[in-house]
């Protein structure tokens, strides 16, 4: 989809120029695609976590799961920040 958008913007350019520009933009598009997947995964994980925490479990299991969830969120946030920094480099 991103490729088509870039192609539409560059319609007046020669094929070679479009190819060169796409080559330069491709890494940025890859990062945005990774961020999109990360956002979708975050939503899926939040839903799953909510279902698990609302299920009947002993308090110890819920505390352990909450700790794991917290670590997972930190890792995803760190990964997201790294991807966002790559966009601006």
Automatic annotation (TrEMBL):
It comes from the Eukaryota. Residues 1-19 form the signal peptide. Keywords: Signal. The keyword Signal applies. This is Uncharacterized protein. It comes from Paragonimus westermani. The lineage of its organism: Eukaryota, Metazoa, Spiralia, Lophotrochozoa, Platyhelminthes.
């Amino acid at each position: 989809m991103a490729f088509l958008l870039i192609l539409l913007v560059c319609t007046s350019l020669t094929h070679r120029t479009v190819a060169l520009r796409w080559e330069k933009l491709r890494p940025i598009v890859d990062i945005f695609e990774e961020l999109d997947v990360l956002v979708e995964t975050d939503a899926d994980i939040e839903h799953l976590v909510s279902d698990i925490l609302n299920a009947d479990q002993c308090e110890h299991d819920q505390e352990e799961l909450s700790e794991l969830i917290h670590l997972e969120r930190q890792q995803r946030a760190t990964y997201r920040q790294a991807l966002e920094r790559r966009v601006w480099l």
